[in-house]
Amino acid sequence: MNVVTTTQVIDPATERVVTTVELADEAATDAAIDRAHRAQVAWRAVAPGDRARLLRRFAEAVDADLEHLARLEVTNSGHTIGNARWEAGNVRDLLHYAAGIPERLLGQQIPVADGVDITFHEPLGVVGVIVPWNFPMPIAGWGFAPALAAGNTVVLKPAELTPLTAIRLGELALEAGLPEGVFQVLPGKGSVVGQRFVTNPKVRKVVFTGSTEVGTQIMAGCARQVKRVTLELGGKSANVVFADADLEAAAASAPDGVFDNAGQDCCARSRILVQRSVFDRFLELLEPAVRKVRVGDPAEASTDMGPLISAAHRQRVADFLEPTTDIAFTGTCPEGPGFWYPPTVVLPAAGTERVLTEEVFGPVVAVIAFEDEAEAIRLANDTEFGLSGSIWTSDVGRALRVSRAVEAGNLSVNSHASVRYWTPFGGFKRSGLGRELGPDAALAFTETKNVFIATT
Ligand code: NAD
């Protein structure tokens, strides 16, 4: 008997069932990988200008569907409509950027005796992209856009909780004229579809974004076949505020730095380190900024923060607060239905509290004091993660010194901006392996080949 597994998609702001989605099993995953494998032979041979044109058309299709994609994300993920529009726009922009790649994937000519040495950036083949639930559209795009541009085919697995925008992106790719099998979206369980990306030898690279725990398993699984991996994993980023900073600006923007997407953001600045001489003043400024965060209906343009993704995740967030955790103040949130959680500021007493060392992935921020620059750097680096962070200071020399000393892939000075599709993104330490985005993104989807041609 053929048993089809399905999953219910829930609107996290209302707890209502939106739709039911079929989940692929192992046989369907292998069939999709086979299709991708066959399609890649023709896709890599498409003339660079034609591949670029198809990617541009895909970008235009996303643009034409932008409002629909954004609304779908609001319903499926509880993202605020403003964020969801930015996320769909990010995929569009990334596809336009990727459309510049096929004609610029340049090799080298290297001087040798008795001939010429030339290098080629060959596509890898089939790429499996595994996406988490927190940013379903952009994170999918960061994998599939450069991979396709470099001549690979892609099978994309969205997270179980958030498959809707990915499914729509798959339809748009076909409508834009991408050949059958070049870009497929396969909703399914991580333990089934995701694992098959790891074990099926026809998949030549796995791009994984998600928890450090699962990322570690994927890396170990891929090692058996020496399969290429890019890992974008967790974070526990520091927002370092020095006494010489514009304290008003630092406090006013700190909620944005951690509560954006309800804190379900790998770049969330979930530890605010404040120089002791301005600690009390900073908290005085932070409190009204936190109370001002409007939590509610994500479809309303005036809303700053929507719900968490699920009831289970809300419980997980709540569990980080131990009975002894000192809660400084909180914002407000609706009663329910919906998986709401208020913006919460805590003052942990010891460096061992879980809220200081583990990724909460919710709207909870810990504020701690430091004495001087050396202690700020030590505390910022006192984590197994190294993804992101901010430094607030009016001293340019200090900004550069601290930026160089903090072990993280993406730092901002007097800002919380982390992601631009044309600049590289990725983590140090247990936050990941490899870089996405930026001018070299496509090279991560190629093998460099050297060819010597004898002239004698
Ligand atoms: P998760 O690790 O539970 O799942 C991520 C994806 O992996 C999902 O699609 C899931 O189905 C799949 N998966 C689960 N088990 C698998 C397995 N055994 N084999 C293959 N695939 C498997 O993570 P999540 O809860 O969906 O996402 C939250 C995590 O993602 C956080 O830790 C967050 O920091 C991280 N994240 C990192 C970045 C980054 O760029 N560094 C960006 C966003 C999210």
TrEMBL record:
- Aldehyde dehydrogenase domain sequence ranges: 6-451
Q: Which family does it belong to?
A: Belongs to the aldehyde dehydrogenase family.
Q: Which Pfam families match?
A: Aldedh
Which keywords annotate this record? Oxidoreductase
Q: Which PANTHER family match?
A: ALDEHYDE DEHYDROGENASE-RELATED
> Active site located where?
232
SUPFAM superfamilies, alphabetized: ALDH-like
Q: Does the keyword Oxidoreductase apply?
A: yes
Please tell me the species this chain comes from: Nocardia callitridis
Read off the Gene3D superfamilies from this record.
Answer: Aldehyde Dehydrogenase, Chain A, domain 1, Aldehyde Dehydrogenase, Chain A, domain 2
In terms of InterPro entries, this protein maps to: Ald_DH/histidinol_DH, Ald_DH_C, Ald_DH_CS_CYS, Ald_DH_CS_GLU, Ald_DH_N, Aldehyde_DH_dom
Q: What is this protein called?
A: Aldehyde dehydrogenase family protein
